[in-house]
UniProtKB/TrEMBL annotation:
Residues 511-535 are annotated as: Disordered. The lineage of its organism: Eukaryota, Fungi, Dikarya, Basidiomycota, Agaricomycotina. This is Uncharacterized protein. InterPro entries: TPR-like_helical_dom_sf. It comes from the Eukaryota.
Length: 535
């Protein structure tokens, strides 16, 4: 409006000036020569006016010249007015209409790969936004159209995406929930595509933020929300970092909380529980934090409560394995008897399902051994019948033991027989356990196996049988010799020295010499290999 007013005023001044020229020319032809220099300055930059003035200058004085001059000046006025107003400038409305037309052509085109109309539409919309006033309905209308046009570009720049988010914030109140959902989903997808190329963490964060909005903000169905939380979890898992694994767990928990109570919802809950188990397993293997192992056990337990016949056996075996790893690896952690009992029940359930499967099957063989391990776990409520069952299971597994697992199985079976013999003071059992351990030691010499042999000889000797004490001393020395690290190396040597002192005192006592009080020696069972959640 200001530009139009200034041009109108300028034209008025021209008309008033030219009117005087008109009167002068009709009364005094000679004035043409005076007027010409005044107009010639203006004519220098206006070619049409230059022609007009040249025509006037070349005309002869007289009536004809006067009349001609009148019409020529009138024409000049018209030209001057046209030049003052110029071609009308396009308005925001005009540009918006042109953008909409280009967008319509793009939408109707058979070949969407040709982006020329799309580019044209975006250009018109951008120009329209610049002309539209701030906080006006027209601006918001243009922005909405611009948003959808920008999102049509499969490979927007970071600047385009930033504008999309900025404009969306401005017009979100004017949009339908379905439109908001589409914009957030598509913006998230564009950021995800950009992140795959750039690996810029900020692009990842914006992607997840948009997907999170898609899951929560704009009225999606529970099923839709679950899908987006699963997508978010998958993205975090892909980062392979502890903090992102934790965020993946958060996303999966959020998904589980809104799963509908339907058969389809049960399927999703099962999928989520299995996913969380895998994350906990990964975190535990990475750092050994027992809280992650306990989380894995809890997720298996949750999944087993769901109807999942095709996954039931696998979940049973995972649960049993995780409980055994918790018992074996974290011996300082008190484990409720209920957890141990439940693991035993589920191991037996798994064996029932595998009743028609040969014991040599890898899965079944591992369940047999895991059940025997849990039954013979020496801490807590250890019953004689459990030990007897464990030994039977070990012997069953021994028949089909893989060669690379034989030594470890012998050590475990010897440990169970050792515990049996300690409870009944059965000498034959001690010797059976010793023979098994010696066989294992000969296959794979290890300090802890030698230690266990020495400890059983100590139990068998009852601190008085010199022959057994000498064998105990021999194996403690072997343990010290093959042990690569301190403080165990020194500990084994010290035990051998103590046994040697004991033998010396016993020898003196037998010879009638007072050897003084005899210190009771006890052996300690050592774990030869910690259990692994991997099996």
């Amino acid at each position: 409006m200001n530009l139009l007013w200034s041009r109108t005023c300028a034209v008025a001044e021209y008309i008033r000036g030219v009117s005087g020229v008109f009167w002068l020319l009709t009364t005094n032809t000679s004035a043409i020569c005076k007027v010409f220099p005044a107009l010639s300055g203006f004519a220098k930059t206006h070619p049409l006016e230059q022609v007009t003035l040249e025509f006037i200058a070349q005309s002869k004085a007289g009536t004809t010249a006067k009349i001609t001059a009148v019409f020529v000046v009138a024409a000049a006025i018209t030209i001057i007015m046209g030049n003052c107003f110029g071609k009308p400038e396009e308005t925001a409305e005009d540009l918006h209409r042109k953008g909409a037309a280009a967008w319509g052509q793009y939408q109707g085109a058979k070949d969407r790969e040709d982006k020329r109309q799309l580019t044209e539409a975006i250009d018109f919309y951008n120009r329209a936004v610049l002309l539209a006033g701030s906080r006006t309905p027209l601006r918001r209308t243009i922005l909405v159209d611009l948003l959808f046009a920008l999102l049509e570009n499969n490979k927007p720049s970071q600047q385009d995406l930033a504008l999309i988010e900025e404009y969306f914030t401005e017009v979100v109140q004017d949009l339908l929930p379905e439109q908001c959902q589409f914009i957030t989903e598509t913006t998230g997808q564009r950021y995800e595509d950009l992140y795959k190329i750039s690996l810029d963490p900020s692009h990842f964060d914006r992607c997840v933020a948009n997907y999170n909005d898609a899951a929560l903000k704009y009225g999606p169905t529970p099923e839709e929300s679950v899908v987006w939380f699963l997508v978010i979890a998958e993205l975090h898992i892909g980062r392979k970092e502890v903090t992102h694994y934790e965020k993946a767990l958060d996303a999966l928990r959020a998904a589980r909380d809104i799963c509908p109570n339907t058969p389809a919802g049960d399927v999703e809950r099962l999928k989520i529980a299995k996913g969380m188990y895998e994350i906990y397993k990964t975190l535990y293997l990475d750092g050994g934090d027992k809280a992650y192992l306990q989380g894995a056990i809890a997720e298996c337990d949750f999944a087993l409560a769901l109807p999942a016949p095709e996954d039931h056996l696998q979940l049973l075996t995972k649960y049993v394995r995780c409980v055994w790893v918790l018992l074996d690896t974290h011996r300082d952690t008190p484990v409720p008897d209920e957890l141990k009992a439940q693991a035993i029940d589920r191991a037996r359930e798994a064996l029932d399902e595998l009743a028609e499967t040969p014991d040599g099957d890898e899965t079944k063989w591992q369940v047999i051994v895991d059940l025997a391990d849990i039954l013979s776990y020496e801490k807590g409520n250890l019953r004689r019948e459990d030990l007897d069952h464990a030994v039977d299971l070990y012997r069953r597994a021994e028949v089909v033991v893989p060669e690379d697992s034989e030594s470890d199985l012998l050590v475990k079976m010897a440990g169970a027989i050792w515990l049996q013999s300690k409870s009944t003071d059965e000498q034959e059992g001690f010797q059976t356990a010793i023979d098994m351990l010696i066989k294992a030691y000969n296959k794979t010499p290890g300090s802890y196996i030698a230690n266990n042999i020495g400890a059983i000889y100590l139990d068998k000797a009852k601190n008085t049988n010199v022959a057994d004490l000498e064998m105990a001393r021999e194996y403690y020395l072997k343990a010290s010799n093959v042990c690569p690290t301190e403080p165990d190396k020194t500990s084994f040597a010290d035990q051998a020295k103590a046994i040697e002192d004991r033998i010396e005192k016993l020898t003196k006592t037998e010879g009638g010499v007072d050897a003084g009080p005899l210190r009771q020696l006890t052996g300690e069972r050592r774990q030869t290999r910690r259990a692994s959640i991997m099996g």
